[in-house]
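Lab notes, practical 5.
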Amino acid sequence: LPGIAALTFALLMSARMGIFQETLYKQFGKHSKEALFYNHALPLPGFLLLAPNIYHHAVLFSQSEPFQIPVIGLTLPIMWFYLLMNVITQYVCIRGVFILTTECTSLTVTLVVTLRKFVSLIFSILYFHNPFTAWHWLGTTFVFVGTLMYTEVWNSLGPFLAHWRKRPKEE
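Output from the prediction step:
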C-alpha cells in the first residue's frame, strides 16, 4: 500500500507539473531544452546532502569487475558502464518527454508517460519471471480503459455499432 500511495502521489504531481509547464509555455514560449535544463540543474545542490553515500557507491562501482566496451575497446568497471547506459537512455527518454510537452497537452503527455511506465512494468514482469497477478490484470484494465476513454474510441465506434445493429439478419 505505501508503494501504491507513492506511485499515485508521483502520478498526480507529474500531472500537476505538466499543467504548470503548459501554463509556462503559453506565457513564455515553448523551450523544451531550457525546461529540461532547469528541471535537472536546480535540484543538483540537494545531492550534496547525499555526498557521503554517493562517494561510497562510487568506490563500490570502481571495484566492480572490468568490462570492455565493444567497438571502442575501452575497459572500465561494469557498474560504471551500467550507469553510463542508464544515463544515456534516461536522457533520451526525458528529452523526448520534454519535447512532447511542447507539442501536446499535459493530459496527453501524462497518458504517454503512464503507458511507458506500464510497458516497463510488463517488460520487468516478463524479464524477471514474476507472476502476473489479479492486481496486474486490474491495473492493465484500468490503463487500457483509461487510454480508450481519452482517445475517444467509444465515440468513433458509435456509428459503426449503430450501422451493425440496423443490418437485416440473413436467414
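Observations recorded by the TA: The helical segments are 2-28, 32-41, 51-62, 78-103, 106-127, 134-151, 153-166. Residues 2-28 form the longest helix (27 residues).
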